[in-house]
Specification:
The chain folds into two domains: 232 residues, Hypothetical protein, domain 2 (Endonuclease III, domain 1), CATH 1.10.340.30; 114 residues, Nucleoside Triphosphate Pyrophosphohydrolase (Alpha-Beta Complex), CATH 3.90.79. The strands form two sheets. It has a three-stranded mixed beta sheet with strand order 1-5-4, covered by helices on one side. A three-stranded antiparallel beta sheet has the order 3-2-6, with no helix packed on it. Strand 4 and strand 5 form a beta hairpin. The chain has 15 helices and six strands. It is 40% helix and 11% strand. It starts with a helix and ends in a 9-residue tail after the last helix. The protein has 370 residues and is an alpha+beta fold. Bound molecules: iron/sulfur cluster. The site of iron/sulfur cluster (SF4) has 14 residues, from helix 11 and helix 14.
Length: 370
């Protein structure tokens, strides 16, 4: 049976116990990750390096833990401090990032390092509000850095945490409608002490025990608190609304138009979705709204104006792209890009989603025959 409001209130009273059990489990079973300070070291006074936490969180935004590990080490070898990264040539950062994908993250990484290096003491802001001012840092990333690097009592929710919370509290309201409830409940659980470890413990629990399929409830440290186990159907949670059957991703696309009408294009990476096809510059297509979907992430400075938005359904996700357009007078040259004459646009290898983008900025462009 789903929790009533009163029962949930009772659950709050157990929060300390639940958080305590989770933290005790984390102490013994946490994942060893190169960017992490383990609980034993924290207890001896070792503090997480905000640069390490930030770097890892940016890399992890659209990439798996295993894929990120070698890149994280490589970046720290090359640029041990945020000031080193700020002093690096942008091309070198892009080269070091090559293969991690979603290159707007690398550009924002560099911009963010430049800004932080210029702050007093070259120190990162130590709260969510200050962190969100920085390029590439949205709500989730700011909360994660604030909690992990600075011990702030922040509510850190990613997909893993949504799943764990939906099961713990037997939330049958479909996602995404249940997000406010999940946030409120998690806010009650976050302990005053060790909030960074608590956030990482929730992530680890979701990644290693409370997995989407076949959760390992027998090994779960919060089993006695878990309403879904009592109900006998944890694997059926979280419920996803019809619209949420496909995950939704977001991004921004930038249609640069030269004075002769030519449009700036580039080729997508050979591997991956729409590999090798042509596109206008876009941000990464991310499940998180992380500050990468605005004009701030445009490929170069120009008078970018919002031209509309498009949506497109892929096999595994729905994509929403905000479209920006700018008139470009000079011959802006970007490596790997080319100017495609408007008369030749329909001959380009443009996938449907990119035709929609260009149509949104220049109605009729992809249909013209000259
Ligand atoms: Fe997830 Fe099972 Fe633990 Fe509940 S008991 S939180 S369903 S692993």
């Amino acid at each position: 049976m789903a929790l009533t409001g009163k029962a949930r209130k009772g659950a709050f009273h157990k929060a300390d116990g639940l958080a305590g059990r989770l933290l005790a489990w984390y102490d013994a079973h946490h994942r060893d990750l190169p960017w992490r300070v383990p609980p034993s070291a924290l207890a001896k006074g070792v503090r997480p390096d905000p640069y390490h936490v930030w770097l890892s969180e940016i890399m992890l935004q659209q990439t798996t833990v295993e894929a990120v590990k070698p890149y994280f080490r490589k970046f720290l070898d090359k640029w041990p401090e945020v000031t080193d990264l700020a002093a690096a040539e942008p091309e070198d950062v892009m080269k070091a990032w090559a293969g991690l994908g979603y290159y707007s993250r690398a550009r924002n990484l560099k911009k963010c390092a430049d800004l932080v290096a210029a702050l007093p003491g070259s120190r990162f802001p130590n709260d969510e509000t200050g962190l969100r001012e920085l390029p590439g840092i949205g709500a989730y990333t700011a909360a994660a850095i604030a909690a992990i690097a600075f011990g702030r009592k922040a509510v850190v929710i990613d997909g893993n945490v949504e799943r764990v919370m939906s099961r713990l509290f037997e939330i049958r309201t479909p996602l995404p409608d249940s997000k406010p409830e999940i946030r409120a409940l998690l806010g009650e659980l976050v302990p005053d002490e060790r909030s960074g470890d608590f956030a990482q413990a929730m992530m680890d629990l979701g990644a290693t025990v409370c997995t989407p399929k076949r959760p390992r409830c027998m090994l779960c440290p919060v089993r006695e608190d878990c309403r879904a186990v009592l109900a006998g159907d944890p694997e059926l949670l979280p419920v996803r609304g019809e619209k949420a059957d496909k995950p939704r991703r977001r991004g921004a696309a930038y249609v640069a138009v030269r004075s002769d009408g030519a449009i700036l294009l580039r080729t997508r990476p050979e591997k991956g979705l729409l590999g090798g096809m042509s596109e206008v510059p876009t941000t990464g297509w991310t499940a998180r709204i992380d500050g990468e979907t605005s004009v701030k992430s445009a490929p170069f400075p120009a008078d970018w104006r919002r031209a509309g938005s498009i949506s497109h359904v892929f096999t595994h996700f729905e994509l929403e792209l905000d479209v920006y357009r700018a008139e470009v007078k000079g011959a802006t040259a970007l490596a790997g890009h080319w100017w495609s004459p408007i008369a030749a646009i329909h001959d380009e290898a443009l996938p449907t989603v990119m035709k929609k983008v260009i149509e949104s900025a220049i109605p009729g462009a992809t249909k013209r025959r000259h």
